[in-house]
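Notes from the 1:1 (GR / supervisor)

We went over the backlog. Supervisor wanted to see one worked example end to end before approving the batch request, so GR pasted a single chain during the call. The sequence is below; no edits were made to it. Supervisor asked that the structure be written out right there so they could see what the output format looks like.
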Amino acid sequence: MASYTVPSIPAPTKLGAKQVYLMANGDLRLSANQNCWAAQHEMEQAIEAAVASAGWTVVRAHPYKDDEKHGFIGSQHEGMEVFRALDPDAPLIVAEAVWQYSHHLLHGLMTHRGPILTLANWSGTWPGLVGMLNLNGSLTKAGVAYSTLWADDFADQDFRAKLASWLDGKPLEHPLDHVHPLESVALEDAERELGAALAAELKQQKAIMGVFDEGCMGMFNAIIPDHLLNPTGVYKERLSQSALYFESTQVTDDEASAVRKWMEDAGITFVTGPNHETDLTDEQIKQQCKMYVAAVRIADDFGCDLIGIQYQQGLKDVLPASDLVEGTLNDSNRPPVQSRDGSRVLYEGEPLPHFNEVDECAGLDGLLTYRVHRAMGEPVENTLHDLRWGDWDRSKTVDDYVWVFEISGSVPPSHLIGGWAGATSVRQPAMYFPAGGGTIKGVSHPGEIVWSRIYVEDARLKMDVGRAEVVELPEEETERRWQDTTPQWPIMHAVTYGVSRDQMMARHKSNHIQVAYANSAEAADRALMAKAAMAEALGMEVAICGTRKGGKSWT
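Structure output shown during the call:
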């Protein structure tokens, strides 16, 4: 009879009554974890007090690391080690005051049997709400049950009542009466017909999504499985960022200089300096211009209809930021790029849609937007933003709650007040961008927009879509919002129609939100309807969120 050594799996220590785990997931980059730890620690102390007020005790699921000078989970491997020692049936709070890489702990949350609460601060400077929305979208895609909560002040009685309810075993439910299934909305015949025709065209003609390495910054929610993507008519061309790096080295200095000259002639201002570590240098700009040419040529090589560059891992160590490249690609008005033999201009007169941080959900969304707006004669330029933060307008220029939509890359200059002439390019923060590189910084111009998000839930593609207005705020109020977030990045002041702050947070399944302008409120309504019809015809479950301008219902 054979004899085997059977592995012995140690049983974790059970938590006591009225004890709850608290864990803090972080970045992969040590500099980010160290810089953000103080804010996270302060938030955790406030959460401990709130938990104690309900008669419970926090047990931190992992220790502060003296050698690294922070208490975040900093890798997937570390996250697995943490979960191996946890009571799988205990309640668990994932508390976030910062951006976090969801895959560091997604594995453990997928197998955890106890109740899970994702919890974030409300701050522009410390974007826990952004990190939590990414985690929520990832948990939703993975089919993991969770509750979610956020607060400006963890001493607030309403927050503490909701937290106490969850600790007592009651899953949190937030009102979602702003969400209207598409079947409850009477779409106009013309827009329904157009959307269906565009969907049929895409499924028959097909399109290629160029993906420069998947899985940026742990965004599991940003990856569309092929078996869900392909029925829409879109297929991935999996490209390597190493190829983009090599192709960048093949672009000549003269070609890079021509790109920069075009941009400067169009009006952009590069804010440069001599120090590579702290300034935007001429050499960094040259490398960004080379990357731009390289990206267009590789896209043409593979017949890509859209592309996404990961950058944050890999390229960040060898090339300046891709953000100047990304926003330029998304604009119809951009420097011409010749084929290698000089025989033709590539993608002449049109954008090459780019999805920032390889968010494939944003990429598919952007492609649909481009096709719909092109067919309707509306502006085709579109981009994702981070759903970064929001606040009431302290200047009292508008009475509404105003969101800060903000992203490091992808924003086309045509979205900005003054276009290229209203844009400046400043160095990316060294904490995240050691190789530097410039942004396309500016303020989004007033106008009517359609916002949307494609996401994965219940093993199918879904889309939420709504309407909003971009408002213009005084310079002082804009600067306050920039200083409370990331002043190097382009900013959009958005008022969502019929969707409050808490409704957005309760429903939105991503840190990202897609936006596109239309020429009027009526045109934006029609573009929304055509896009919703196209998504539905492609097999997505669609919901319209909020109202039309002025509070007019969609139903």
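Supervisor's comment: Residues 30-53 form the longest helix (24 residues).
Batch request approved.
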